[in-house]
Amino acid sequence: MQSFSAKISKIGINPCVLVPAPVLSALFKEAGRDKGHIPVKGTVNGYSFVQTLVKCSSKWRLYINTPMLKGAGIAVNDKVSINIQLDTEERNTPMHPALQAALQKNKKAIDVFDRLPPSRQKEIKRYINHLKTDAAVQKNVQRAIDFLSGKERFIGRNKP
Q: The pTM is what?
């Protein structure tokens, strides 16, 4: 586990902290790489988080999302104490049973879904998984199938 203190700044609309070079070096060594997203977990002012380190404009950043801000009782411009380590847990997003069933009934849609980048597949699965009512799930599963069939936009995306 690596520890550091940093001031929360805002890049665009996103609160984040810059990760110091020694901490990055240790994380890169443990991950066996220094490119791509690096999955991490830890605490910010004692509040546990699971997050991803992202390199943007040649700087590695730990974005501080809303649950982290609220949970830790912190805000932009606060100085925070961070404990961080590589997260080796698998991060799979399960497919909602209704989406799975609809895809199995539509060969074209499942073929398109399987060719989507993993990040887009995850985006669709997460969107459906976070809906609160069965009616919303059914409506949006159909919209997802229509999107994958090239009939309409879905979750702010043009047809694939």
A: 0.66
